[in-house]
Amino acid sequence: MLSIETEQLSKQFGRVHALGGLSFSVPQGTVHALVGPNGAGKTTLIKILMNIFRASSGTASVLGVDSRKVSGKAFASIGYVSENQQLPGWMRVGGFLKYLRPFYPTWDKELETQLVQMFDLPLDRKLKQLSRGMRMKAALASALAFRPKLIVLDEPFSGLDPMVRDELGKALLNRAADTTIFLSSHDLAEIEGFATHIAFLDSGRLQLSENMALLMARFREVEVTLETPSPVPTVLPSAWLQVTANDSVVRFVDSAFHPEGTPAEIARRFGPECKLAFAPMTLRSVFLAFARSNRKPL
Amino acid sequence: MSQILHIFRKDARHHWPEILLSWVLVAVYVWDQPRKWANQTIHIRYIVGLLNILPALMILSWAFLIARVVQGESLVGDRQFWITRPYEWHKLFAAKLLAIVAFIHIPLFIGQILLLKLGNFPVASLLTGLVEIHLMFVAIFLAGALAVAVVTSGIGQASLALLILFLMILGIAGISSLVPNSGVSNDADGVQGILYIVCCISVVLVQYIHRKTLLSRFIILGTVVLVVLVLVFTPYEAIFRHNYPLPTKEHPLSVKFTFDRALKFAHERKQPSKWIEDEIPLELPLQVAGLGSESLVQIEAIRLDLELTGGKRWTSHWHSLSNVVFYGRTRTWPSISIETKFYDDIKNTPVKASLSLGIRSFRLGTPTIITVAGDRTGLPGNAQCVDNLSENWLQCFSALRRPKPIFIIADLPNQDCRVTKEATANESWDTSPATYYDLGSDTGPDFDLSPVQDFSVGLSRFYFFQDHEIRLPVCSGTQLLVSKPELLYGVRTEIDLGEITLADYHPTYPRKIIPPARKPMPGETSDSLSRNIKPEFLPAKLEHGID
Fold this sequence. Notes:
The structure holds two protein chains of two kinds.
Chain A: E1 2-13, E2 16-27, E3 31-35, H1 42-49, E4 57-62, E5 65-66, E6 78-82, H2 93-100, H3 109-119, H4 132-144, E7 150-154, H5 162-175, E8 180-185, H6 188-194, E9 197-202, E10 205-211, H7 212-218, E11 220-225, E12 240-246, E13 249-254, H8 261-270, E14 275-280, H9 283-292
Helix pairs in contact in A: 3-4
Chain B: H1 2-14, H2 16-37, H3 45-52, H4 54-71, H5 89-118, H6 127-150, H7 155-178, H8 187-210, H9 213-233, H10 236-243, E1 256-259, E2 264-265, E3 279-283, E4 286-289, E5 295-307, E6 313-315, E7 319-326, E8 331-332, E9 335-339, H11 340-346, E10 351-364, E11 368-371, E12 377-379, E13 383-388, E14 393-399, E15 406-410, H12 421-426, E16 434-438, E17 452-457, E18 459-463, E19 468-472, E20 479-483, E21 485-500, E22 513-514
Antiparallel strand pairs in B: 1-4, 2-22, 3-9, 4-8, 5-6, 5-7, 5-10, 10-21, 11-20, 12-13, 13-14, 14-17, 15-16, 15-20, 18-19
Helix pairs in contact in B: 1-5, 2-4, 2-5, 4-5, 4-6, 5-6, 6-8, 7-9, 8-9
């Protein structure tokens, strides 16, 4: 069962192609992170999914509903929070939550209380008087309290201090068991902690979308020490990214690491006597390698 | 329904200061109206000033309230929290309409009922008419205010949009004044009104259903362009010719006009008045004959044709006019303005001229005789009047609409009801009967905030070759002959003026006609007695005034 599915989704703003033929899916029950540099099209994609923007072509469905029809009652199952969202500043936090309650048949008052306590929300303060972080927490509390089937977060950690990020992350992890979370972020370190799936968007094109564990498992920093300096072969596997050679040391990032296959492939190309070192990578270094190489992985 | 009420309650909580302000203004209005009816004055200048602009303040407060309520869930932009919440557009829209009805219509409705009660009108029978007024209010004002509110995201933007719309309306009015013949046909107004309503409804629906602000703004702009195109390309002349055909056997000209060559304006000061800078008014004396006692005509349009030296022809456009001619009138002075520059070029040169008039013929219904009472006098349409002798008129009140069309003729002045000093001094043979008329159509209630129409019925008659009009006192015991004119048809006619010098027909101020009017001779009927209609006051025996 898929919570989100897109097929050849494109969006143009005048002559600018914000998204180009995007096809991907978000399985139910996953925490799916959408990452990419500024201007990659993350917010555009999310706004299309939330029916705030209309796609220029292609289709998208959210919880089985065509994204162009996601409105009204459909939002009773979707919790959406964006860093740029305008909240009714004149409302107090308590009044805001109270106002939203009747809109959601599944609103959980107990969960609301828990979220208010967890986020330490001042119920009697007006939303416009809150700091950015507190406003984000209030928005998140209002988007989680009705136990949505899908939580969509657009840059939820942007501009927040580490403590608030940690609290938000924890709150999301608590909810991860019985919902699907789809979030965009620049903050790869935060995502690494709890995303089960990851998608990388660059210049409106999807570079990858896969299970986080598998991604982390297939990326390794590889250092090959040769017995004698020798030239690097001109033809290398496309999965080897950022290949550099220094005297007798060759370094690269293997984007298709296999505990048996990779050493065998290296031995075949550099000889059986070379020394090998494999180092696991952080999500950040995976994406840096990925972004810097001009090659598509497997 | 619960979502509608939920949003409505939120709006009521949030916007209570604006709501309270508009209610206070309505309350002040309801307090102020009876004070005005009774001609009570307040001696504090700034309060008087505020009370004078109260209707404008009320309308502004409503426009502000509508903008605030609608923009609580702004339809412009993509960052508002509510667009990704389970709001259903039709419920949101219904909640906003409910707010408008509850915060604007109901208080106004209650205020209007109170005013009707204070005016001693039967409220129950007038409720339908009150609802009609509110529907007109929706079409004329609320639809526009709502359309502005849905395409703007704040009060600043809304104010700017209103300013732009105001300037556009001024621009359209300016264009209208430049379009030939546009003043004599209302047909384009209906089309423009429909365009306005369709535009407002479309914009509001597009915004609530799709939130396509750019499209909505284009619809508004497109409507303005369409209105201008309709204004410019309406075939006014053809419509006018259709509405005012040449007389036929079935639709004859019920009055005969002839140009009175004997009368001119004196130009002693040699300084023609320039009260309209770009245009010069000309007034042309016409003798009136052949109008039956049961007939009435209204000159609605005028056009002047000139044959200049060298055989060149000059024709003005049709200009709108409202000269009413009835039994007893011997003259009328239709007026037309021509460009000052053109006038200056030919004003002293004799030119051959002819005048075309567009005329509506009315038949006066069987008259009712109503005697003015000391306290209250009833007029048709449930109007109640009290005599205001100091102002020479009856001050009248009616519910929802003024009595229209109406034509009143009275035997004034008479022995009990003498003319004013001014009128006595001006008395001459060339007088007309004392009359009051309102030839407006009788369709529906008048569009007004107050359901009580406060109006004056003053009976006037013309002196000095029927060029000068004076209102006469209406005393207790005076008999009013009240008829309901029925519109029969429109025709147009042409009057040959022969050779004229335009300068002779441009009035100077003070106006002076030559030759002077003849004064009454000693022994002739006193100026305090009627010369218009016989004292017996029998409609069938109406006689022409001495001429």
